[in-house]
């Protein structure tokens, strides 16, 4: 793998497609839409996602953590993208990653 090809590029698109959530609720609150491409920070990589897994913690977040007492429910900065179990290809990396 060529290290130079993974460093930050200026030619990547500014928009990506994502399933995002703008409010708490059932599956109907999930929207497939355009979203800004994230900017990678020190120590990070950008992954073109090919598959994602959603787990019970994602369902609880989508629903608003209703099982928790109100004082334990975290503030959520909408919109959010659920799912942290991903599979894909690294398309960009900060130089300090390697």
TrEMBL record:
* Name of the protein described by the UniProt record: Alcohol dehydrogenase catalytic domain-containing protein
The taxonomic lineage of its organism, from the top, reads: Bacteria, Pseudomonadati, Bacteroidota, Cytophagia, Cytophagales
What UniProt keywords are attached to this protein's entry?
NADP
Glycoprotein is among the record's keywords: no
Give any Pfam family that matches.
ADH_N
InterPro entries, A to Z: ADH-like_N, GroES-like_sf, Zinc-ADH_QOR/CCCR
Q: Which residues form the Alcohol dehydrogenase-like N-terminal domain?
A: 42-97
């Amino acid at each position: 793998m060529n290290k130079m090809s993974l460093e930050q590029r200026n030619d990547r698109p500014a928009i990506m497609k994502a399933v995002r959530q703008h409010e708490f609720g059932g599956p109907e609150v999930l929207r497939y839409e355009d979203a800004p491409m994230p900017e990678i920070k020190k120590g990070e990589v950008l992954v073109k996602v090919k598959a994602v897994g959603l787990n019970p913690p994602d369902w609880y977040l989508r629903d608003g953590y209703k099982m928790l007492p109100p004082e334990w429910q975290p503030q959520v900065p909408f919109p959010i993208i659920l799912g942290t179990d991903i599979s894909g290809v690294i398309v960009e990396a900060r130089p300090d990653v390697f």
